[in-house]
Amino acid sequence: MSSEESAEPQKGSSGRExxxxxxxxxxxxxxxxxxxLMIEMFVESSRQSSGRKIDVRAIVVPPGxxxxxxxxxxxxxxxxxxxxxxxxxxxxxxxxxxxxxxxKMLKPVPVIEELREKMVVEIVAGPFKGLRGTIxxxxxxxxxxxxxxxxxxxxxxxxxxxxxxxxxxxx
Length: 171
What we know:
The protein is α+β, with helices and mostly antiparallel strands and 171 residues long. It has 2 domains: 21-106, NusG, N-terminal domain (Alpha-Beta Plaits), CATH 3.30.70; 111-169, Roll (SH3 type barrels), CATH 2.30.30.
């Protein structure tokens, strides 16, 4: 399943494109994609029926943020109409989300940018998976880090790709 579900841009109820806002909707953890699909189906059915139309421009399921779906709508009342009677919706319109905040959620930060020397890390892949150590040096050009394994009985320095380590805590 993709991490981002989008509805096609629609005309507003007045027949013109308007200014939109982003609103976060709280959902059951792990059910974000299902909620996004149910909202999309509800919006499509309201568009095809002769009743009141719900103007949802986009539905975003941010990767890495559990329990939230973001809707792009012209106004707050459209959020309430879109999520009415939908299973797994826990809270409605927690507040407006800025476009800058959404961009930070969607743009992944490279792991090597978070790493610093003397930082305690855990190795999450490779033959040393599960071991902890402190970073001795970082080679940003080669995307590698040298780690001194703490749990070893003798001093052991290894060089692993930056994607193989996860920060645990700062010393």
